[in-house]
UniProtKB/TrEMBL annotation:
InterPro entries: COA6_pln, COX6B-like, CX6/COA6-like_sf. One of its GO terms (cellular component) is mitochondrion. Pfam families: COX6B (PF02297). Keywords: Disulfide bond, Mitochondrion. It comes from the Eukaryota. It is found in: Mitochondrion. It comes from Lithocarpus litseifolius. Its main location: mitochondrion. This is Cytochrome c oxidase assembly factor 6.
Length: 113
């Protein structure tokens, strides 16, 4: 029902932000922002983006371009995807250092007096 109502409101409208040139501009802005995040990863994050993504103030301009060129739902999706990939990569990189002890507790031996 909701899909039919949406389709009947604007049957001949083409959203320009989903066309090829707009998508390419969005992807370019996205890549520039995440490249800035990777480049400035050693600096303290002071700004907050969607889904709790933190970034340094040096990336504020590229974030504004990213928000300007992409739909809000796409920005949220890309932020979640970036956070998920970073989390997985961190777990894969730190696999050995985060592993706990593999020794089983030894049984107590009682000495008879």
């Amino acid at each position: 029902m909701a899909l039919e109502a949406y389709a009947s409101r604007n049957p001949d409208t083409v959203h320009s932000d989903v066309l090829s040139k707009a998508r390419q501009a969005c992807y370019k802005a996205r890549d520039a922002f995440y490249a800035c995040l990777d480049k400035e990863s050693n600096k303290r994050p002071t700004e907050i983006a969607s889904v709790g993504l933190l970034y340094p103030s040096e990336c504020k301009n590229s974030r504004a371009e990213f928000d300007k060129h992409c739909r809000a739902s796409w920005v949220k999706h890309f932020d979640r995807q970036y956070c998920r990939n970073r989390r997985v990569q961190r777990l894969l990189d730190d696999k050995d250092s985060r592993r706990g002890p593999l020794l089983l507790p030894q049984p107590y031996t009682f000495k008879s007096s």
